[in-house]
Structures are given as structure tokens and as C-alpha cells.
Amino acid sequence: MKEEPSFTIKQTAEQTGITEDTIRYYEKIALLPRAERKDNGHRIYRREDITTIQLIACLKKTGMPLEEMRPFLTVSADADPAEYPELVERLRSHREHIVGQIASLQQVVDFIDMKLEEGRYRQVCSDEAQESSQPISPVEMRYFPLSAKASK
């Protein structure tokens, strides 16, 4: 029978993109199980540990607090989600929160784009140019609904 490969903390950090200090911290707060140790005391990580660290990194990128991750980490990777309806609901709720953040950030990007676009056309500053009835962009209407209606 083939022995499962093991990895040092340095190799684990390289494979996961998580620093060695952070991996030790996750062990300290019991987000990760304590790593096995060699006779010399060095930590040994298995493929399953690397997968768990990658899951933590993924959830962390979504803004999920470490404490909220714990229930997700206790469920095995091949578990049927139907067996954990409360976790499915938490994940759906977290997803909706992220979708809201994305929409909010998209509005900021749209506003910045609009300002950048305006900046290109500010070469003419005469009253005549300002009074021209140029159509208002949908982006501007979204940010300035009152001024957009007033100018039409």
C-alpha cells in the first residue's frame, strides 16, 4: 500500500499561499487540527490539511470571519449538503451579502468611470458648453436622479 505524501510547513505554505505563521495561528486557535510531528518536532501536513487550509483561504477571501468558518470545516468534503440545511442557509446568506457588496462596489466603479469620462471633456469651460443639452448617461442618472430629472 502506498504511503500518503506528507509536507513540511514550508511546502504547505507554498502550496496554499498562506504564510507559515498564519498556519501556526490557525492551529493555535484550533481552526486547523494540530499537525502531526516528526521525531524532531517538525510539523507534518497531509493532503487533507492542505485542502482545509485552501478552504479557509477561500472563505476568508469572501470576508467570512474565522469563527464563522468552524462549522464548515467540520463537514467532510464529500458530505451531502442536504444533511446540513443550516450550513446551506448560512452559505446562501453569506453569498447574498457578497452579491450586495459586489453591487455596491460596481456602483463605485461606475461613478469613477463617469468621473474619468467627464474629465476628458472638461477642456471647454464656457457657459455655452455647460448650457448645451447633452443627454444624461444612465450611470449619471443612477447617481444623480434628481438633477437628471430636473435637467430634462
TrEMBL record:
UniProt xrefs under SUPFAM superfamilies: Putative DNA-binding domain
Keywords, sorted A to Z: DNA-binding, Repressor, Transcription, Transcription regulation
Classification via Gene3D superfamilies: 1.10.1660.10
Domain HTH merR-type: 6-75
Ranges in coiled-coil conformation: none
CDD domains: HTH_YyaN
Name of this protein: MerR family transcriptional regulator
Species the sequence originates in: Paenibacillus xanthanilyticus
